[in-house]
Amino acid sequence: MSEADIKRAAALLRGGGVVAFPTETVYGLGAIAFDPHAVARIFEIKQRPFFDPLIVHILDPAMLETVAHAPSPAARILMERFWPGPLTLVLRRRPTLPPIVTSGLDTVAVRMPSHPVARALLTATGAPLAAPSANAFGRLSPTRATHVEAMLGKRVDFVIDGGPTTLGIESTILRCDDTAVLLRAGAIPIEEIEAAIGPVQLPDHGAPVLAPGGLAHHYAPMTPLRLIEPSSVPTADRAPAAVLAFDETFEGYAAQRVLAPNGDLRAAAAYFFEALHELDALQVQRIDAQPLPERDLGFAMNDRLRRAAH
Predict the structure, then answer these.
(1) Which pLDDT value is given to residue 50?
(2) For residue 97, what are the CA distances in angstroms to 46, 65, 107, 110?
(3) Strand 107-111 versus strand 87-92 pairing type
(4) Alpha-carbon dihedral of residues 107, 109, 112, 113, nearest 10 degrees?
(5) Angle 187-188-193 from CA coordinates, rounded to 5°
(6) What is the 3-state secondary structure (H, E, C) of 22-82?
(7) Domain 3-197: which topology?
(8) Secondary structure of 122-144 as H, E, C letters
């Protein structure tokens, strides 16, 4: 990545283009949020349904004011604690924001990324960017520029290669008005959120989709995946499959990836999508994914595995 890449990408965005860029979580596919025609191209490129709202990335509080009304006191506490960073807040949207960005909802999902490339691009563009993950809809999130290129190819006007992402898992999404509701588990554990503002409600899975990543089937590799304890799989059934394990190895599988031999959930999250991309490329019969500890970042990774296996 160079300064010339940032200038080129910003010029493309201002001209109605769609650009992929790294954030601290995963790579995003961005267009200027106030350009409905460019935003429509995001849906077209990803083959994303229009009822699934997008996250808007902002640089600073001034840019926030252009897309959302004043946040609640609890939301302000979270902004001060976690922004810039991997927290997305669902706020009341400004009527000037095109409805295509929010799927017609009166709320908008907003976050302030900390990645230097994302921030440099927002600075150079001078406008908020609507940017979901830069992958085909429902498939594995990209943590490298090569993942974007393999899935989306020349449909994207430009891909800024900022190397592998550092966190490797998407942002935590929270609606925070009269009550705080977790809409998507992510890179900030719910325990840290609750330490800042108190108890947070879990989502009602029968409710309308208010944030990205809320569909039952999502984050899936092309290879069929099942969420299962590998030690329970008979040895004879392991040979045609690969295994995604947390911190131990399992004999008899055609291939395996161990997310964190030392049991570190943060290291596991950083390698999570990368490992799934690697296993998916092997064209095995299936992937057996071991459940992670149901705490901290393990909660977010298990959420993605359950949706991938749905």
Answers:
(1) 86
(2) 21, 11, 10, 12
(3) antiparallel
(4) -170
(5) 160
(6) ECCCCEEEEEECCCHHHHHHHHHHHCCCCCCCCEEECCCHHHHHHHECCCCHHHHHHHHHH
(7) DHBP synthase (3.90.870)
(8) HHHHCCCEECCECCCCCECCCCC
Residues 240-258: tens digit of each pLDDT: 999 999 999 999 999 999 9
Angle at 217 between CA 265 and CA 289, to 5 degrees: 40
| Biggest alpha carbon–alpha carbon distance for the chain | 60
Q: By three-state DSSP, how is residue 193 classified?
A: helix
In the chain, where are the structural domains located?
3-197, 225-309
Phi and psi at residue 71, to the nearest 5°: -75, 165
Q: How many residues are listed for the chain in this entry?
A: 310
Specify whether the CB–CB gap between 135 and 152 falls below 8 A.
yes
Question: What value does the mean pLDDT take over residues 91-98?
Answer: 96
Note whether 3-197 and 225-309 share their fold.
Answer: no
CATH 1.10.150.120 fits 225-309, yes or no: no
Q: Is 256 helix (H, G, I), strand (E, B) or coil?
A: strand
Tracing tokens 């010339």 back to the chain, one arrives at: 4
Count of CB atoms within 10 A of residue 4's CB? 8
The CA-based angle 77-82-84, given to 5 degrees, is 120
Q: Where are the beta strands (DSSP E) in the chain?
A: 19-22, 27-32, 55-57, 87-92, 107-111, 129-130, 158-159, 172-176, 180-184, 225-227, 241-245, 255-258, 286-289
What band does 178 get if pLDDT is binned at 50, 70 and 90?
confident
